[in-house]
Amino acid sequence: MSSILNADLHCHSVVSDGTLTPEALAARAAANGVELWALTDHDEIGGQHRAAAAAREQGMKYLTGTEISVTFAGETVHIVGLGFDPDDAAMSEGLYDTRGGRGKRAQEMSEGLAKVGIQGAYEGALKFVGNPELISRTHFARFLVEAGHCRDTSEVFRKFLTEGKPGYVPHRWAALKDAVQWITAAGGLAVIAHPGRYKFTANEEYALFVEFKAHGGKAIEVVTGSHTPAEYVEYADKALEFGFAASRGSDFHSPDESHCDLGKLPWLPGKLTPVWELLEHRIQ
Length: 284
Ligand code: AMP
Ligand code: MN
Ligand code: MN
Ligand code: MN
What we know:
Blueprint lengths: L6 E2 L13 H10 L4 E2 L10 H11 L2 E2 L2 E8 L2 E8 L6 H11 L2 H13 L6 H6 L10 H10 L6 H9 L14 H10 L3 E4 L9 H13 L4 E6 L4 H14 L2 E5 L25 H4 L6
Parallel strand pairs: 1-2, 2-3, 6-7, 7-8
Antiparallel strand pairs: 4-5, 5-6
The protein binds adenosine monophosphate and manganese (II) ion (3 copies).
One manganese (II) ion (MN) binds next to loops.
């Protein structure tokens, strides 16, 4: 399969912090010309059977997907899994454990926000939650916009939900090794999501790539809605340097919030090995 393929292998539904159902996402992806699609909800695979069926209905090829929250060198890193068995028990258990603690964290976020005069944020965020096991910062951001504290969700993150801000609560997610292992043991392939987004030094990023590879990780996202055009070039070079395949995905969450729509991305640079070439046997 060529690198000229409209593959969108990163997006979110109401099963995590997106605002569309898997079916509505599939319809939107197909309308935008997506040929190969994956739904990658945070720490969740509960939407996979619906997404695969909806893709089939829309005439798109499908790869199973998820985006696992990991703590590495004190930072949160996201690992996308593609092409795994959605009924794998060990992976389901690992993701269940990773989701655990989000409720308590959300209560603490709410307490932090109350201290700066924002009352009822937990209850407010809950109104935006589609999956009770997956309350995320995004749901708080939507509540704070609705309540008039900020103009948009980016402003909420900047002022309230990032490190050092009143609604930020540090959290320990899965270990890198475990996330890669859940994915690969379930027959899938692990991908570092949006590597350009982490605040790592060059040494820390190098360590992430080396350790990820040592655990069996195979690819990085190069063309993603979370990268600038300069980062497409930077991470294309790094994919070659480290021998990683490359992935492409919008990271679409919502028609009202996401600047990058499903399937509306530049092609993967032709010199890279597309992840879908390594996953042909897993495409449905
Ligand atoms: P959580 O897993 O609860 O920490 O929430 C992480 C999610 O918040 C990410 O997957 C994004 O959807 C969203 N997010 C993180 N940073 C920002 C930002 N600066 N602007 C908008 N959304 C963000
Ligand atoms: Mn998200
Ligand atoms: Mn992410
Ligand atoms: Mn994402």
